[in-house]
Amino acid sequence: MVSARTRNWILALLFLGWALGNLDRYVMNYAVLAITEDLQLSASSTGLLLSSFFAGYALMQMPGGWLADRFGSRKVLIASVIMWSIFTALTGAAWSLASMVMIRFLFGIGEGGFQPASSKIIAQAYPREERSRAMSVMLSSGAIVGLFVPILSATLISTIGWRIMFVIIGAIGAVIAILYWRYIKLPKEEEAVSNTEVASTSSEKKSSVALLLKTPLLWNLLIAYFSIYAVNWGLATWLPTYLVKVRGLDLVSLGWLQMIPGIATLVGVYASGYVLDKLPQGREKTMGSLACVLVAIVLYLMFNASSVAIFITYQTIVTLFISFVIILLPSVVLKNLPASVTGTGMGIVNTGGQLAGFITPMAIGFIVDAFNGSFSAAFWMLIAFAVICIAALLTMNYEKGELLRKERTV
């Protein structure tokens, strides 16, 4: 096992890279207000633009995980950062809807290998009882970025413009790729597929991918990922537009107000990692289901809020419960699958989450156009996804499937 000092240094670098990836995704949700005006896009076209990143990102999840398991997580991690940095910078050069959609799609392909590879590195470097907290630290970078992105985006877009902003973010990515190449180094025995963990002793004729696809737990997780990320990305991508066009906020006021749910997300992510490492197996699905019930109820209260202040209060509560479920899902993967197939397993279940990121923003765009600018039907759709997540979590089975049975004997 990697020493405590080394693994914490690796985690800090993963935190930095995931922060940058989230920065690019989140600033697009604010930059799209200026991009829509510059490129004269309808709500449906805006939805297509917001979804294009997730199409590439979802497509790359399973290949990214397989590549991490097959060729090494470090190689995939570095390649991912290099590729996404190139297309982040190119976002600033887009001249039409078609060019923007293609660039964002390729950006998604580039970033798609990051989470499976980084999840595998955590499984390789950390003991099982510390993996939820390690994952929560890495994912908390998204919450921290989300805290500052609203006001940062408003400031940058109003001063240097959205094009130069994306070029700068791409240049930062190049620096991070160099840091990964220089400082993330796993011992060979950690980077190689472990002989003590699953797959090799069962049936060498069966591929790990085939065994994973026959594991019911992964299908439950894929559905839960899709459902909770449909809520998460539906809110993240369209709330800035909703609050400006429906609730009448200006961009700067929006930026400051969105820091409140951003703080709640950060608290929720760190608290969730700690709580999940303390919970006995099986209890997390009950807690996750309860969190989804509360998400559905508070979403209803949120879109019926009588004022912006009440709306933001409910949004803050929703983000707390969403954060718990988002940390819970990868924790189940890290704690129940052998490290030798963690990258592939993470890629499979995360495909669901990123498909939601592709489908939901586009669906909301079409719904808003169909209902003459009303977001009510879109909110009902998000509530329905929260209910689906409840069912997926409640029916999780921790024992069924060859990989899981053998993992219990290791």
TrEMBL record:
GO terms for molecular function: transmembrane transporter activity. It is found in: Cell membrane. It is a multi-pass membrane protein. Residues 10-401 form the Major facilitator superfamily (MFS) profile domain. Keywords: Cell membrane, Membrane, Transmembrane, Transmembrane helix, Transport. It comes from the Bacteria. The chain crosses the membrane at residues 41-60, 76-95, 134-154, 160-181, 217-236, 256-276, 288-311, 317-334, 355-371, 377-398. GO terms for cellular component: plasma membrane. CDD domains: MFS_ExuT_GudP_like. The keyword Disulfide bond does not apply. Pfam families: MFS_1. InterPro entries: MFS (IPR011701), MFS_dom (IPR020846), MFS_Na/Anion_cotransporter (IPR050382), MFS_trans_sf (IPR036259), Sugar_P_transporter (IPR000849), Sugar_transporter_CS (IPR005829). This is MFS transporter. It comes from Brevibacillus reuszeri.
